[in-house]
Amino acid sequence: MKNKFYITTPIYYVNDQPHIGHAYTTVIADVLARYYRQKLGDDNVYFLTGTDEHGVKVAESAAKQKITPQKFTDNISQQFKDAWQKLDIKYNDFIRTTEDRHQKIVVNILNQLKQTKTPQGNDVLYEADYQGLYCVGCEKFITEAELVDGQCPDHKRKPEKLVEKNWFFRLGDFLPAIKKAIEADQLIIYPPGRKKEVLGLINKQNMPDFSISRPVKSVAWGIDLPWDKEQKVYVWVDALSNYITALGYPDKELYQKFWPADIQLLALDILKFHALYWPAILMVLDIPLPKGLYIHGFFKINGQKMSKSLGNVVSPNDLVKQYGSEVTKYLILSQFSFGSESDIKINDFPAKYNADLVNGLGNLINRLTNMIEQYLDGDIGLTKKDLEKSLNISKFLSNINQEIEELNFKLALLKIWNIISTVNEEIDKNKPWELAKNNDQQKLKKLLQDWTKYLYNIAVSLQPFMPQTAEHILKILTAKQIKKPVKPLFPRIN
Ligand code: MSP
């Protein structure tokens, strides 16, 4: 029986402002964290997010703005925090790779890598020349085959030719063990299609070793390699380590309690790093692998990848301004199934809002509370205990919970909204206003009580997704006197 839950998002690059892609991952993490807090208690859940603040691109952008890289990262990191606050994201910790607490532990990790041998008895790290094409936009080397018209297809810029000394991580020696762990689902990679892809990558032999450091002259903004002052740590060891440095690896209580992570969320763009590099690093450190990597789909905007360089970025702040945090989360999560690729259709949001929130949930709350106020003087005759006893009415909640645990958020919301529609239809069908006119009090009260129980269940099921809405509904239903909300929860937009 699992009694703790540790969930992480990738730490986001600070060369981009927070956009709806980052928001999607973070919202999912928030939903799961809230769900497991209910199930396991607040103390047994840990939700980590943060920002990845080193690298060439950060130094470049800072220089352009004529500020120090630190100042630059302070600004953008704060923008991520602000965006998450506006979205009502309740994380336990926000790690920044420029923080001392992170860098100190990364240095320890590097020293361990340096001292350790691979299962085949080779040094894990070795020095060599690297030559290749490097895309500053991606912060990674790119192959000829990946280029379109001589340019990186994502950043529409020509890669640079590089020959330089790097320290390399001997990845190949770890692949057999990684393969075994993935095949046995000791390291779950979900959905199964992604697992297949990773195994395919491993089987393709010739998976190159990866650089863990680059010369200072190429990457001025980064952590010093402890044994070679001419080199700076290159992104992935620095970035991936955040998942354990934030917990205080190796000896802090948080680390002891929460590692290994239960769910590490990410999108396809960084699957290779998480499914191959990360396990290899953990194997050197001789600590458990995460239980699972959960890969969600990548949004496109009109068929193109969203990026600052392409100028098609959708900001979560704008959505929150228009719809509020609760509805924004609903709209984002109800659009896509976890794991599927998708084009975001922001233009559909107003219609969806009016249909689901205004006419669906909002209407149910208004008419039900209105009838209880009108016909029963606000006294539904159900205590809080009665309502609690009604929980999981017709297995409704356990059904939703199962969907959440399987990361089927769209389906979970669909099921909740099916119940909302059903209750709304029941009200239309039973015409309680006629029962009131005919003085059929008994039947009227029984029906209103049944619907109240359903609304109570709906609110509880919504807690992980729309916590404020859920709380609001629960407050209305458990008040001494049930009253129709003075202001509708979801005003219509045109
Ligand atoms: N800094 C690295 C990650 C290091 S983790 C140890 C990085 N940062 S990133 O800012 O590019 O974030 C990538 C992640 O943001 C994706 O894996 C995904 O979680 C989220 N998304 C960014 N753009 C996205 C979309 N267009 N669609 C969906 N999610 C996207 O990579």
From TrEMBL:
Domain Methionyl/Leucyl tRNA synthetase: 6-156, 157-368
EC main group: ligase
Family membership: Belongs to the class-I aminoacyl-tRNA synthetase family.
EC assignment: 6.1.1.10
Species of origin: Candidatus Komeilibacteria bacterium CG11_big_fil_rev_8_21_14_0_20_36_20
GO molecular function terms attached to this record: ATP binding; methionine-tRNA ligase activity
Pfam families, sorted: tRNA-synt_1g
Keyword field contains Metal-binding: no
Keyword Amino-acid biosynthesis set for record: no
UniProt GO BP: methionyl-tRNA aminoacylation
Protein name: methionine--tRNA ligase
Keyword line: Aminoacyl-tRNA synthetase, ATP-binding, Ligase, Nucleotide-binding, Protein biosynthesis
